[in-house]
Amino acid sequence: MGAKDWFVCYADGDVSSLLATRPEIDRAATEALIRRLFAGHTVVSAADGTLAEHASPDDDMVYAAVWPRMTIVCTSAVALDRPSDIDARFLAEGADRTVYVHAMHSVVDWFALGVWGPGGQLRRSLSLSGGNEELIEDVGEHLSFEQPFWAGEYPAIEDEEDEEYPFPFHPLELAEAALDNLFGFVFEGYEDMPDDDSADPFDITLAGFRLTAEARKRRLFGRG
């Protein structure tokens, strides 16, 4: 598996159903959102991307889309070891909506998930790394799609003679299951592939933005 991503999603309703309608980006609202979230930066429009190809942008790039009833923002600012440590501005932007954070990176078999209710309460925060053999954060009850993984129904090691794996499943398999169950698409398949009605991330267009940190002006006796 080589997939990686880091994004925050705001939704008023079922995300998979909303994406299935292939909504049109509200470009003005998308740019306004990025300027609010990154107020300490100069924001410059860049070329469009897709969710399949631009879900893990570098620190100086953001890809996003505001649609009716939902929003996705792909930014490294939410790629945190502990999703519960997310900056308050991201939660404030999702007031009265469900907020999701999804992040994964194959280099260390890392997956992180955060879910907050419309009132801002943390419902679930999970972060684990197979490469580092560490369960970093595990807050809240397991979501329904997680349960078979924790029960050992999708073992990371099939051959008992192989070396032991720190978890009863591969974190990236759980990451793809989370994508399918919460958002209605996957980047790479897990054992139970989604049906044909799933959204294709290559068809989900995102607006691109380049960020430049604004230098603070030093003033001495009124001179710049």
Structural commentary:
The protein has five helices and nine strands, in the order βααβββαββββααβ. A nine-stranded antiparallel beta sheet has the order 2-9-3-4-1-5-6-7-8. With 224 residues, the protein is an alpha+beta fold. Residues 190-194 and 216-224 have low confidence and may be disordered. The chain has one domain (4-210). The radius of gyration is 19 Å and the shape is globular. InterPro entries: DUF6928.
Q: Which structural traits does this protein have?
A:
224 residues, alpha+beta, nine-stranded antiparallel β-sheet, disordered C terminus
Mean pLDDT: 89
Biggest sheet details: 9 strands, antiparallel
Helical segment tally?
5
Amount of helix? 10-25%
Distance between the termini: 51 Å
Structural class based on helices, strands and sheet pairing: alpha+beta
Shape: globular
Name the strands of the widest sheet in spatial order. 2-9-3-4-1-5-6-7-8
Beta strand count: 9
Q: How many domains?
A: 1
SSE sequence, one letter per element? EHHEEEHEEEEHHE
- Share in β-strands: 25-35%
Which residues sit in consecutive blocks of at least 5 with pLDDT less than 50? 190-194, 216-224
Computed CA radius of gyration, to the nearest angstrom = 19 Å
